[in-house]
Model the fold of this input.
Amino acid sequence: MSNARNLANLLNSSGDVKSDRLDNVPVYDDVSGSSSGLMTAAMKSKLDAIEANATSDQTQAEIAALGIAKTDLSNCGTLNASVVSQLIGPTGATGATGATGATGPQGATGPQGATGSQGAIGATFSVSGDTLTITT
Done:
């Protein structure tokens, strides 16, 4: 038998493969308790409902009573503070303070200020014989 196929002979008008044109395709029956096969729509619906209803009839206490060990911490819920502190451990001591840095260079000297105004002229003294004369 040749591997060449005419698509018009293999496909119907909807583009689906004609069932009488399938060769070398095994036929599967529905799965049963004793044999493998295909899943029926009813089986698929039942399987889909398992997750949605898995714990809806159990309380948290009933689930905890099952004693199932948690091996994955990514979905454990909220941990109380004492458990967290046991996991993390105590805070370490504060490290020593570092040395003080060197003093920077002194800045440049600023400009000289303006010359102040001249003070008042003081008195002059003169002595002539026994006479002291003060002139202001």
Q: What stands out?
A: Residues 41-53 form the longest helix (13 residues). The chain has a mean pLDDT of 77. Strands lie at 124-128, 131-135. The first strand starts at residue 124 and ends at 128.
